[in-house]
Structure formats: structure tokens, C-alpha cells
Design goal:
about 325 residues; 12 helices; Rossmann fold
């Protein structure tokens, strides 16, 4: 029997890659998986999905000895680097953890990929690296659009991308970079916009929205992002970048209204607060390059929100566990 190829993933205690592991097994992908996560938040260990084809190592991607030990023991064929600090508001308060995890951590992973001759590195980035569009009519970004990050989180992710590309030019690292729009779905940390909104509405608490809620984001269900990443692993070109989006752009205030419609309550709970510094107005990315591989998003926003809200209703322990994080 031919041995399955091994994929090492960083960040499987987080939102996107806890879902990715589940989806990979659900869709019977022909890989074995090992993963790394710092389990810094209490609920991360509960996000984890482990079975005989997924081995988990708790540890920090910014620690070279730990990372090299895992690589030496496991000898992965493919690496997906998804571990990152990702909450923009926190990066504004304190950028240092973002530099440590997103920049230093990426270099540690790059070094291990080169040392242990990994076939390719899939580096997970974000549409935040593009900066923002200042009106509703501007064309969506493509993979060739310049990076212009406007907050510490975005700058750390842009820096990480540059390190990946530099490793390709200098050392021959084989890579793919993905830049996705806003994700939502089950297992997302309640510090993020959508689950926080659901949690507050269910508890009849005020939902704070920056400014007048006119900032526009493209919203994609996490299952669609997981399918896109797997498509890229299986069929994507090498040493290139893929934008991933659902082309479902909505202002934040409309997102709030649609969540209220789904939950049948909460329209009176919105509270507009002073906008945060440097708040991007609009994000919009074009996924035609990825769609040419045969990927298309399946979830319409209203259906995805209904599924997501139902998951949180069925798993309210997740809110309680998350609220205990230090």
C-alpha cells in the first residue's frame, strides 16, 4: 500500500484550521496530518480534531528548537502555515505579539521547511495586506495589486509574505500564498465581529459597531475557504498567490441586521461607537484566478449565517469557555 503524503499544519487550535482538519477528513482527503498550535487560549484545545490520521504537538511556532524537533520527527511533505495573531484591534493596542508570531514565527517555519526539504509551503495570508479601497465603485484587488497595509496586523502579514518570497528567491523555497477575505462559521473566537454579535444578541446585550457601520467587507463561510485551500494544495500552481473570496460584500451595519433577522431578535441592541484608528473602509478581492482551477464558493451569506448561528445556539459552552481566557 502506498504511504499517504503527510501535511503539517500550524494553527489547528484556531478557527480556520480546526475546521480545515474536520473538512479534510469529512471529504476523505488522501493525506495524513500533523499539526502545531500554542493552545494559548482555553478553548483552543476543544477546537482540536485528533484521530489516527492527525497527530498534534502543543508548542509555539516562534520557537526554533520545538519546530525543528517536530519537523525532524515527522518529515512532512507539505506545510500549511496558518498560525497567526489575527485580531486587528489587539494589534493596535500591542503590536509585539503580532511581530513575534506572524513575522518571527513565519521565518522559523521557513527555515524548517528548507532544512527538512519540504515539497512546498502553503502560507496563509489575508486581504488586509492590500490596505483599503476608499469608495464602493473601485475595482476589486487582484493578486497583482500592490500591498499597502494600514494596521500592525496587516503589516505583520505583509512582512511574512515578503519573507516567504525572499526564501524562494534566495534558497529556492517552493510556496503558495493565499489571501482570503473575512471568514465566518463555527468555532470562531467570540472576539471576532460575527460570533461576538451572535453572543451579545442571544444575551440581550448591546452590540457595539464602529462609526456608522458603513465599512464594507467581503464575507466567506470558512468551509468555502477550507475547500479553496485544499483545491490549491491538490491542483494549484507553485510559487504564486491566490486570492480567495465569496464576492459577498456587505457593510457592517447590514451584517448586524441580517444576524438579527436570523435570530429573530436584537435590532434595538446596536450601539454605534467612536471609530478605531485607521479603520479600512472597504476590502474587495477578485478570485478569478482560483476559480479557473474549478473552485467556487457554495455558501450564500444568509444560509451561512443561519448555519453559523445554529451552531453557536447548540454550542453555547463555547462562549463560556472563551470568556475564561486570560
Amino acid at each position: 500500500m502506498t504511504q499517504k503524503r503527510k501535511v503539517l499544519i500550524t494553527g489547528t487550535g484556531g478557527f480556520i484550521f480546526s475546521n480545515f482538519i474536520r473538512r479534510a477528513f469529512h471529504t476523505k482527503q488522501d493525506y495524513t496530518f500533523v499539526s502545531i498550535d500554542s493552545v494559548r487560549k482555553n478553548h483552543a484545545i476543544h477546537n482540536m480534531y485528533v484521530n489516527k490520521n492527525h497527530k498534534f504537538y502543543p508548542g509555539d511556532v516562534s520557537h526554533p528548537h520545538f519546530v525543528n524537533t517536530v519537523f525532524e520527527m515527522e518529515r512532512p511533505d507539505i506545510v500549511i502555515h496558518g498560525a497567526a495573531e489575527s485580531f486587528v484591534d489587539s494589534s493596535i493596542d500591542n503590536a509585539v505579539p503580532f511581530i513575534t508570531s506572524n513575522v518571527l514565527g513565519t521565518q522559523v517555519i521557513i527555515d524548517a521547511c528548507l532544512k527538512w526539504e519540504v515539497e512546498k509551503l502553503i502560507h496563509i495570508s489575508t486581504d488586509e495586506v492590500y490596505g483599503h479601497l476608499t469608495d464602493e465603485s473601485s475595482d476589486a484587488w487582484t493578486e497583482d495589486s500592490p500591498m499597502n497595509p494600514r494596521n500592525p496586523y496587516a503589516a505583520s502579514k505583509a512582512s511574512a509574505e515578503l519573507l516567504v518570497k525572499a526564501a524562494h528567491e534566495t534558497h529556492g523555497l517552493q510556496y503558495v500564498i493565499t489571501r482570503s477575505c473575512n471568514n465566518y462559521g463555527p468555532w470562531q473566537d467570540p472576539e471576532k465581529f460575527l460570533p461576538k454579535m451572535i453572543m451579545k444578541i442571544l444575551s440581550d446585550e448591546k452590540v457595539t459597531v464602529y462609526g456608522q457601520g458603513l465599512q464594507i467587507r467581503d464575507w466567506m463561510h470558512v468551509f468555502d475557504n477550507c475547500a479553496a485551500i485544499m483545491k490549491i494544495i491538490n491542483d494549484g500552481d507553485i510559487n504564486t498567490t491566490y486570492d480567495i473570496s465569496a464576492s459577498q460584500e456587505l457593510p457592517n451595519v447590514e451584517v448586524f441586521q441580517r444576524v438579527c433577522n436570523t435570530l429573530n431578535k436584537g435590532h434595538d441592541l446596536i450601539e454605534f461607537v467612536k471609530d478605531r484608528p485607521g479603520h479600512d473602509f472597504r476590502h474587495s478581492i477578485n478570485s478569478d484566478k482560483l476559480k479557473a482551477l474549478g473552485w467556487v464558493p457554495e455558501y450564500k451569506f444568509n444560509d451561512g449565517i443561519a448555519q453559523t448561528a445554529q451552531w453557536y445556539l447548540n454550542n453555547q459552552w463555547f462562549f463560556r469557555m472563551s470568556s475564561n481566557n486570560s
